[in-house]
Backbone:
């Protein structure tokens, strides 16, 4: 079974069950700046799961391109991917548990469709807690279809609940379907959902019953409000299912990656399967090249940059280039463009936008690769500038924090810092680097996860902090200078923020100090940041600052920072101001007539 066949069969099956096929949406979500990428098939359907009527009806089916980068560092093992395709069917207030499970079972097991023997399946259902009861209803349906009770596992919320954790939106218990590879159970507790390698998830039926509301400004947790109509959201990952159906051990061994892998092997003059470390690099290049191609080929494509989705794209490209170099692809030879051409050819059928944007894809990849090569050169230069001081250390150890700064600021890979240090008979304090790196990762996880199960988005953790600092600065300026000090523009990079505001005279040293004190005071207070969606009129009536002349959607997001600030904004923001560090103003200067500019950093 190929990916094309599986995609077609799925759509066809659900059409026979009265579903209308809808178009998958852009990888860059519309009207939802709180996430950088479409992370699941249900994502574009959230408004309908929350109650809006869908023009195509109550039964829908589609395939959706998705990106999840929360686990980017795990890519390289045989199963992780940052890009994947998700098949899904939806009931918007039509069938519920029984209907969804029966259709899932038929598609999986019927000879006419996937023909998986029922005895190879196991399922999980929600074990119940204070928010929702134990899902005996789903278990009974599975039993009625012939699934043995010992192959039905009851699991807690961490495993069998889907929806936004920590943020708002539709959610509910789910029932997941697993394929049993036939290995011996790893122990007495081993059952569907166990991560020992015996069971692999192939499909997830989510029973959307609740809307999780936002936590209150006072720090109180959100609540689970019953949805007006119950919905079903299901998701089947194409890559994983093809791997199982073709009896392969890894998704990288399937036809989905055959051509892509060949392009990498050819460029590197390396045969996959001969060296464990190199195989890992091959998988990273394959995955990242595919993701980068899809991001750049999207109708709402972003270019590589230091913020948001552009930053994720940059990381994907740079990591792929580095691993391409590790594989031996010489510096003068581009790593990604030849691989991207194969991706375009392979997927332009279901995703015609790739063909239409091929020129842009190749051009952007080429530019970014060249830039990265320059970055590497700059990083080496920076390293050499540091050297005289470093060499003074009698122990010849380079601090891990410095190595992390090179990594964070110049995108300078730690392996390379290590190599350069070795050339000078020095070592890098790896533990200290790992610690700094871990801290940075934790931050991106708590801030960038956007709460979807599976570890997802990376908002550009540094940018997120600067976004929140912008709100604090804006409010502090109004307090110190008066309400005329309104935001005229802002610009954020991974290194600093710039903020333009209306004011007629240079700020005095005293005014600057007062602004600094106010902002840092709010950081010290560790105020909670919360978000609510409302109409623009409601937002203004509630005292939220909205930017004059800005175009807003009819529903806007209002970010409230404790009792200090309330502003209409797309986000993303940190959860608590304590995450910001120390706020420092580096410069206050004129920007244009009547507009001043502040340049500030968080340290
Ligand atoms: N939203 C669920 C998932 O991604 C089912 O589609 O697993």
Residues:
């Amino acid at each position: 079974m190929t990916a094309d066949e599986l995609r077609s069969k799925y759509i066809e099956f659900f059409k026979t069950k009265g579903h209308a096929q809808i178009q998958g949406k852009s990888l860059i979500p519309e009207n939802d700046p709180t996430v950088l990428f479409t992370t699941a098939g249900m994502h574009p359907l959230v408004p309908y799961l929350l109650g809006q009527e869908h023009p195509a009806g109550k039964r829908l089916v589609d395939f959706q391109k998705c990106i999840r980068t929360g686990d980017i560092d795990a890519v390289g093992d045989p199963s992780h991917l940052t890009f994947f395709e998700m098949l899904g069917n939806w009931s918007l207030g039509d069938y519920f548990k029984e209907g969804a499970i029966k259709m899932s079972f038929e598609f999986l097991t019927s000879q006419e469709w996937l023909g998986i023997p029922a005895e190879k399946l196991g399922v999980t259902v929600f074990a119940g807690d204070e928010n929702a009861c134990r899902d005996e209803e789903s278990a009974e349906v599975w039993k009625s279809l012939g699934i043995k009770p010992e192959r039905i596992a009851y699991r807690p919320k961490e495993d069998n609940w889907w929806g936004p954790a920590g943020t708002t939106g539709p959610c509910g218990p789910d029932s997941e379907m697993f394929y049993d590879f036939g290995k011996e159970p790893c122990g007495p507790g081993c059952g569907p959902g166990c991560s020992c390698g015996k069971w692999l998830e192939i499909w997830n039926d989510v029973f959307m019953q609740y809307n999780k509301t936002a936590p209150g400004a006072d720090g109180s947790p959100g609540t689970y409000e019953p949805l007006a109509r119950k919905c079903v959201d299901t998701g089947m990952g194409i890559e994983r299912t093809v791997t199982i159906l073709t009896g392969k051990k890894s998704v990288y061994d399937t036809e989905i990656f055959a051509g892509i892998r060949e392009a990498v092997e050819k460029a590197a003059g390396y045969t996959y399967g001969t060296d464990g470390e190199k195989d890992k690099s091959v998988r990273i290049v394959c995955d990242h090249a595919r993701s980068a191609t899809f991001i750049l080929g999207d109708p709402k494509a972003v270019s590589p940059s230091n913020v948001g989705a552009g930053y994720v794209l940059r990381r994907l490209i740079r990591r792929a280039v580095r691993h391409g170099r590790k594989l031996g692809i010489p510096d003068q030879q581009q790593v990604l463009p030849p691989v991207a051409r194969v991706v375009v050819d392979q997927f332009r059928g279901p995703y015609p936008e790739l063909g239409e944007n091929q020129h842009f894809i190749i051009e952007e990849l080429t530019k970014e690769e060249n830039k990265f090569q320059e970055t590497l050169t700059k990083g080496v230069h920076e390293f050499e500038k540091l050297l005289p001081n470093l060499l003074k250390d009698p122990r010849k150890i380079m601090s891990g924090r410095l190595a992390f700064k090179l990594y964070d600021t110049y995108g300078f890979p730690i392996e390379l810092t290590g190599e350069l240090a070795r050339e000078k008979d020095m070592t890098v304090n790896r533990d200290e680097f790992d610690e700094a790196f871990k801290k940075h990762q934790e931050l991106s996880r708590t801030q960038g996860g956007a709460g979807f199960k599976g570890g997802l988005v990376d908002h550009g953790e540094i940018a997120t902090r600067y976004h929140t600092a912008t709100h604090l600065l804006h409010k502090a300026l109004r307090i110190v200078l008066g309400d005329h000090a309104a935001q005229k523009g802002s610009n954020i990079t991974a290194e600093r923020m710039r903020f333009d505001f209306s004011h007629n005279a240079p700020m005095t040293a005293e005014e600057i100090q007062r602004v600094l004190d106010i902002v840092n005071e709010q950081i010290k207070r560790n105020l909670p940041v919360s978000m609510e969606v409302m109409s623009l009129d409601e937002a203004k009536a509630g005292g939220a600052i909205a930017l004059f002349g800005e175009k807003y959607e009819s529903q806007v997001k209002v970010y409230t920072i404790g009792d200090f600030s309330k502003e209409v904004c797309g986000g993303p923001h940190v959860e608590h101001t304590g995450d910001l560090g120390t706020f420092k103003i580096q410069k206050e200067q004129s920007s244009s007539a009547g507009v001043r500019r502040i340049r500030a950093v968080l340290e």
